[in-house]
Design goal:
Blueprint lengths: L2 H19 L8 H14 L6 E2 L2 E2 L7 E5 H4 L8 H4 L6 E5 L8 E5 L2 E2 L4 E4 L2 E2 L19 E8 L14 E7 L6 E10 L3 E10 L8 E12 L6 E15 L4 E14 L7 H6 L21 E13 L4 E23 L3 H4 L20 E26 L2 E19 L14 H4 L12 E22 L4 E18 L2 E4 L2 E3 L7 E2 L5 E2 L17 E8 L2 E10 L3 E12 L17 E13 L3 E21 L4 E24 L2 E14 L3 E6 L2 E5 L12 E11 L2 E10 L2 E2 L7 E2 L2 E12 L7 E8 L7 E5 L7 E4 L4 E9 L1
Parallel strand pairs: 7-10
Antiparallel strand pairs: 1-2, 3-9, 4-5, 5-6, 7-8, 9-10, 11-12, 11-43, 12-13, 13-14, 14-15, 15-16, 16-17, 17-18, 18-19, 19-20, 20-21, 21-26, 21-27, 22-23, 24-25, 27-28, 28-29, 29-30, 30-31, 31-32, 32-35, 33-34, 35-36, 36-39, 37-38, 39-40, 40-43, 41-42
């Protein structure tokens, strides 16, 4: 049995035990959903109305939601993060048209590592650096809805990293009736995808129901070499308990992605033109230079139990597994000192010719591998105190083992890696001292214990709703580095004896391929613990006046503990957690044909951490840029003037200001600073607009949507600016009423309809030129959905 299979088996056993002991439900988390459902019952508020992707919100916070009806209009197989791109405050830049090559998310000026992503309430951010991997998310056909909290979290959000808000998406429940969906897609750049779903309907004596789904996707990159080969398996079994909403459920997900990184460009190269010409890139280069494989999976339990007419208990246990890396190559001599280590050998025969030659240099596969095992549980106890008042207590536990290695491997005669995971799963580069050649070797444990409490009350004949909550995360990191560390990007794994030991405890080694500068200073292997905690209150109030109008105001505090990478530097910087104080005031109008909202907001952001190049030390180090102020206005509207026509739109204005210059070490005894005071945050456009028109005529559903993104600064000193852009997408569906159950269709999607050339994701810099991902060109695809 494979390690992954053993991990899933163990995780499933743990969840099954937890479900047997517990009681819970389903959504952002089951507890949050159950609490909101109870509030709806208490206040008599109707369920969420939606107009083509605009949902009527009732929470006293800035939130926007999309439903499965809107998700289905988007490209088949598209990442869910691209489908929220038209919501206010959100900007998602896709690396390609189809969504399986990655992308980048920002919300109200906060990058994705500062946004909490959850699937059915379980955290999807990386345990070490909080990164979000958009191409590893669930197939969109299986998602019931996705909600974005702008600048705030839910009180039980299982996160130590959310300063910029949350994205929560929810898995569809199994149907009560048997059904089958088969959905093939074809598109440009060799795009082929097949998706299938089987619904069991109710079976057995207790009305159990389930679904099982699989998909396979392959296509070529629109620029550069390689492409995507992706497989995904999903399944859910659901057992209702009575007719009052209680249930137990178990969902499993597995995603296997094999793809190459796409080439990035500079602003200067883009402005010269020709950046989209595939022939401008070396398409026959070694595929090993940029592979990005991943095996990810999770098991999610959910349950809800009514203990009495006053008490409801929810428990959501989970297990997650990750094996992934971003790979490259490195060329080294057969007599490099790192290969020799503390042995008396002359070197290593890397090319297998039976001899060791100092003039022989061999290119090896050099990955950064991450392997994570993660266990968690989110639970809530809800007490309906009276008709108009509720209380709940919540507890969250999240524990992750985060193993970061870089066992190098060999490249075959065709330029491909012998194994996608190099020496970890394949043939390693064995050294004469009994070790293997490594790029890095770190082990960390992340443990979150969080308690939370929330009160909701309705006053003045349900005209005023009040929410008061507090969450208290207690976050521990245990860190172990088994190599010599220079900065995040440079470790030196060797058994050599250092040539120099400095008074500050750092060490130096003779020059080698992996250590090109003999003056480099390294932190010796080390083990240490870090602990962080916070008390984070939130407050919200809504006043409903008239039948259709309301105003709301909210205040929330956020917290993000330092990332693993920020703690392993040669310099023990010991950064403080990032914190935010967020304020919102908004107005909503909700009638049968019109849904509209507008909000003014401000976020005071402290201890913003960035990584900057220290010229004197010749390395990248963690720095605290201090305070940042963000403020703005965003809004959303959905209007259906006639039965078959809907018009929706959103806008966002964001103003950001960095308050301080960025410290940058000491040179010749003088403190150095990078001029950032008064500048705007990188990747944060002043203006964004989104809109969609949808019209039904006969058997045809027509949709046209667009997104405008203003100029974005690409470095912290604000000297490089990515130009603004405007893209449109088209979707046309022909409903096949005579086929199967009547909800079959043939759908055409055209991404970037007018073939706008633009820069998408930005790899920002402090005071240097950035690199960019090209936005996808015009790309057409067609999908047949056969439902029986």
């Amino acid at each position: 049995m494979s390690n992954f299979a053993r991990s899933l088996t163990f995780g499933a056993s743990a969840i099954a035990i937890a479900l047997g002991m517990a009681t819970t439900a389903s959504a952002q988390s089951t507890g949050s959903e159950a609490f909101e459902v109870e509030q709806v019952v208490v206040t008599g508020t109707r369920g969420p109305r939606a107009i083509e992707g605009v949902v009527a919100e009732n929470n006293p916070k800035s939130r926007a939601t999309i439903t499965e009806q809107y998700i289905g209009t988007q490209a088949a197989g598209q990442t869910i993060l691209n489908s929220i791109n038209l919501l206010p405050g959100v900007n998602f830049t896709n690396n390609d048209a189809y969504g399986s090559a990655g992308g980048d998310l920002t919300i109200r000026g906060f990058d994705s590592a500062r946004v909490s992503l959850t699937q059915d309430g379980i955290p999807m951010n990386d345990t070490g650096n909080y990164a979000i991997y958009s191409n590893q998310q669930m197939d969109p056909e299986l998602i019931q809805r996705a909600a974005v909290n702008l600048g705030t979290t839910d009180v039980d959000s299982p996160t130590a990293s959310a300063t910029g808000g949350t994205v929560n998406y929810v898995t569809r429940r199994p149907s009560e009736e048997f059904g089958v969906i088969f959905q093939p897609s074809l598109g440009e750049y060799g795009y082929r995808r097949a998706f299938g779903l089987v619904e069991t309907g109710e079976f057995g004596p207790w009305g159990t129901r389930a679904w099982f789904a699989a998909s396979k996707t392959k296509y070529d990159h629109f620029v550069g070499a390689g492409g995507v080969d992706k497989m995904q398996l999903n399944g859910r079994i659901y057992q209702p308990l009575g007719d009052n909403g209680d249930f137990v459920s178990l969902t499993a997900h597995y995603n296997e992605n094999r793809n190459q990184f796409m080439p990035r460009v500079s602003l200067a190269d883009f402005e010269k033109g020709g950046a989209y010409d595939k022939n401008d890139y070396n398409t026959v280069r070694s595929q090993a230079t940029a592979v990005n494989p991943s095996n990810t999976g999770n098991i999610r339990g959910q349950s809800r139990f009514t203990l009495s007419d006053k008490l409801t208990l929810t428990v959501d246990p989970s297990f997650q597994y990750t094996l992934a890396h971003g790979g490259g190559t490195h060329t080294t001599s057969e007599t490099d000192p790192q290969l020799i280590g503390n042995s008396s050998a002359a070197g290593v025969d890397l090319n297998g010719d039976g001899k060791i030659d100092p003039n022989t240099k061999v290119t090896l596969f050099r990955p950064n591998i991450t392997n994570t095992h993660r266990y968690g549980v989110t639970s809530s106890l809800i007490w309906n105190v009276s008709e108009n008042h509720q209380l709940r207590g919540a507890y969250t536990f999240d524990w992750g083992r985060h193993r970061q290695t870089g066992q190098m491997g060999y490249i075959d005669a065709n330029g491909f890696p012998e194994d996608w995971f190099a020496g970890r799963n394949g043939r390693p580069v064995e050294l004469p001292d009994g070790t293997v050649l490594r790029r890095r070797d770190r082990l960390s444990y992340a443990m979150l214990n969080q308690i939370a409490a929330e009160y909701r009350g309705s006053f003045f004949n349900n005209a005023v709703d009040l929410t008061v909550g507090v969450r208290a995360p207690f976050f521990d990191r245990e860190l172990n580095n088994y190599c010599y560390q220079r900065d995040t990007f440079n470790a030196y794994c060797t058994t050599e004896t250092p040539s120099v030991v400095n008074p500050d405890g750092t060490v130096q080694f003779p020059s080698s391929a992996m250590n090109s500068n003999a003056n480099n200073k390294y932190r010796a292997p080390v083990s240490f613990d870090k602990k962080y905690d916070a008390v984070l209150p939130n407050l919200g109030v809504t006043w409903k006046f008239g039948d259709s109008q309301s105003i709301y105001a909210s205040y929330a505090e956020g917290f993000s503990a330092p990332r693993t990478d920020d703690l392993y530097d040669v310099v023990d910087v010991n950064p403080e957690p990032e914190t935010t104080n967020s304020y919102d005031i908004g107005y909503r109008f909700q009638s049968g044909t019109l849904i509209a909202s507008i909000a003014a907001w401000k976020t005071d952001y402290a201890n913003r951490i960035v990584r900057t190049y220290d010229e004197a030390a010749d390395m990248y180090l963690t720095r605290n840029v201090g305070d940042v102020t963000l403020q703005g206005i965003d809004g959303q509207i959905g209007w259906s003037p006639i039965e078959n026509l809907s018009l929706t739109g959103s806008f966002t204005y964001t103003d950001s200001e960095v308050k301080n210059d960025l410290p940058n070490g000491i040179k010749d005894g003088v403190a150095q600073f990078i001029p950032t005071a008064g500048n705007q945050l990188v990747e944060t456009p002043d203006w964004q607009f989104g809109g969609r028109v949808a019209y039904t005529i006969g058997d045809f559903d027509l949709g046209l949507q667009g997104k405008y993104v203003g100029e974005r600064f690409a470095n912290d000193i604000n000297t490089e600016v990515a130009p603004d852009y405007l893209t449109f997408d088209l979707d046309v569906r022909y409903n096949l009423k005579a086929l199967g159950k009547g909800n079959s269709y043939l759908q055409l999607n055209v991404i970037n309809l007018f073939d706008e050339e633009y820069l998408a994701d930005i790899s920002t810099q402090t005071d240097r030129a950035a690199s960019y991902q090209l936005g996808a060109p015009r790309t057409a695809m067609i999908t047949l959905r056969a439902s029986f």
